[in-house]
Every structure is written in C-alpha cells, then in structure tokens.
Amino acid sequence: MKILVTGAAGFIGSHASQVLLARGDEVVGLDNLNDYYDPQLKRDRLARLTDKPGFRFVQLDVADNAGMARLFAEEKFDRVIHLAAQAGVRYSLVNPQAYIDANIVGFTNILEGCRHNQVGHLVYASSSSVYGGNTNMPFSEGNSVDHPVSLYAATKKANELMAHTYSHLFNIPTTGLRFFTVYGPWGRPDMALFLFTKAMLEGRAIDVFNHGKMQRDFTYIDDIVAGVIATLDRPAEPDAGFDKQDPSPDRSWAPFRVFNIGNQGPVELMRFIEAIEKALGIEATKNLLPIQPGDVPATYADVSALTEWTGLKPGTSIEDGVARFVAWYRDYYKV
Q: Could you tell me how far CA 183 lies from the centroid of its own chain?
C-alpha cells in the first residue's frame, strides 16, 4: 500500500514508518521539523528512513491548507496514519494557539484530504488525556470523556468528534488510538524518562510531581507501533448493533472506532524512577513537588477492545523498556 505517515520525524511516526517499510509498503513521510524540541533528533530519526527503498520525505505543515490539498491530490494515498500534532499537556498552558493550528486546523486538512481522494482508512493519534477528570479505572473507551483538564486533551477529544462526523457524512473509515504514555528509544526529550535520564547522568536533581504519587500506564514504543499497524490493516466498520438510545462513544453506525493502547497496568512514578536508577546505576536526587495544572494523577487503560479487534495485548515490562531506552540514550549521546 501507499501510506501517508504524518509526523514521520517524530517518535511514534519514525518507528511506524520503519515497520511499514520493512514489510514492503510505500511510505510518504511528512513532518514540518519544528523546534518544539531538538530538530536534530528529528533529523537523525529521518536519517534512518531516507536510505530505505520505498520512503520519501516531504517537509510540510499539516496546517498548510493548500499544501496538504495538493499533496493528497498528487499522491492518492491508500491509507493515512496521522501522528503529527502539537504534543504536551503543560505546553498547552503556554502556547494554546499552537494546538489549534496543528491539532484542529491540521486535522481538518487531513480529513478533507481523505474525503476528496478516496483514502481507504484513516488511523489517527488520540490520547489518554481525553479521560481528563475521570477517576473510574481502568479507563474504558465507553466512558464519557467530556471533562478534559487541558487544551491538549480538548483538541484530541475534538479530533475524535471530527473523525466521527466525516465517517458519518462521507463513509470514511476512521480509527482513533488513545495512546497511554509512550516511551522507548528515540523518544521525546520533553517526556519524563528522557528528562530524568539526562538529569541523573549530569548529576542534577529530578523534579518529581505529585510527590511521586503519579501513576501512568507506560506503554513501550514497539507495543504502540504494533497496535497502530494492526488497526491500520483492519479498517473501522459500522456497528450493526449500535444503539442510538444508549450510544457508546467509541463506536457508531458509521465506520468509526476508538481504541485505548496501553500496557494495562499503571506504574507508580517512584517505581519508574527505580527502574531508571537500576538501568543507569545511579541513585536520583529527587525534588518532591505538587501536581501541575493540567496533569491527572493516574492513567490506566482497559485494552480489551483492542485485543478483541486485533489480537494484540501490549505487555513489555517497565524494567525491560526502560533498560532498552537507557542503552539507546547512552549510545546516541555517547555518555
């Protein structure tokens, strides 16, 4: 298949592109290479793709209406994996406009491209952040997600609603994937694992929010990519048994689905730090701080729907995943 991967220089996008190319798909990778974090890391991820047959890179912003329309019209993609977005909960308090441009305007351009060019399936990144103030765990796709606590989360909830509209109006199969705290080699420098590892190797203290009582359903990158590819290969279908009297938000009479992808096991932040300490052979100095605005104290994914749909069940242990990240970090940064 000919597949558009947006955010191809990003953490998940670069890994997903690797897997698609390895199995023989043609990949057009799109990224704007912005400076939200170190562009050199993005270029180095791309360098692992550009020498592979079947890959072509396009530097373009998804919020560029004319550029995106032209790309879709020229390329005629079979399927689309849309991972480009302005990420980060805390940054959305500082620069909200970036989230509207990338996550709302950009997503509209993706939907319009799919609509006008007969794309067979759109798989897009949602987020566990949509669960917001929910405390009923594990989080299930059938739960209400009407109480976001950050603009980032609100834009991801909006993406799911927008996708449903296009699935209904134009019969476009769309699948949203709610990622739960993705980590691993080539990860994002603004994420806790990267920040902690860097600080500990430099002899600096680490900031531990909510006094270490945060819980996250950390999900290893290989498990995430397996879920992305498996859902790509099985387009969303209408639910013949959908009950409009008691509507579930994760499925529809239209070809629309939403799935959690998590490890189905929340890990307390202190255990996460212990895994880093073990992998590095360094004991961290910890600054215990209160929870930050926009953060939620815990996430925990119910992945039974994903398992039923694809046969997959993520399961990489935190100790194994952290050790692999630390090995990559030491090699990449020569420390």
A: 10
Burial 173-209 (b: 16+ CB within 10 A, else e): bbbbbbbbbbbbbbbbeebbbbebbeebeeeeebebb
Identify the band that residue 70 occupies on the pLDDT scale cut at 50, 70 and 90.
very high
Tokens 């560029």 correspond to 64
Task: Tell me the pairing of strands 182-183 and 219-220.
Answer: parallel
CA dihedral (318, 324, 329, 335) positive or negative: positive
Provide mean pLDDT across the span 61-74.
98
| Cα–Cα distance, 117 to 238 (Å, whole number) | 21
User: Is residue 152 flagged as an active site residue?
Assistant: yes
Residues 29 and 60 sit within 8 Å (Cβ to Cβ)? no
**Catalytically annotated residue among 36, 124, 152, 220:** 152
From the list 20, 9, 96, the residue with the least C-alpha distance to 53 is 20
Judge whether 175 and 123 are in contact, CB under 8 Å: yes
**Which is more confidently placed, 295 or 12?**
12
- Edge-to-edge strand order for the sheet containing 55-59? 55-59, 26-31, 2-6, 79-82, 121-127, 174-179, 256-261
Residue 90: what pLDDT?
80
Q: What is the pLDDT of residues 167-212, one digit of tens each?
A: 999 999 999 999 999 999 999 999 999 999 999 999 999 999 988 8
User: Can you say how many angstroms the Cα of residue 137 is from the centroid of all Cα atoms in its chain?
Assistant: 20
pLDDT tens track for 248-261: 999 999 999 999 99
Residue 5 amino acid letter: V
Does residue 223 surpass a pLDDT of 90? Answer: yes
User: Could you give the CA distance from residue 89 to residue 80 in angstroms, rounded to a whole number?
Assistant: 25
Stretch 52-67: mean pLDDT: 97
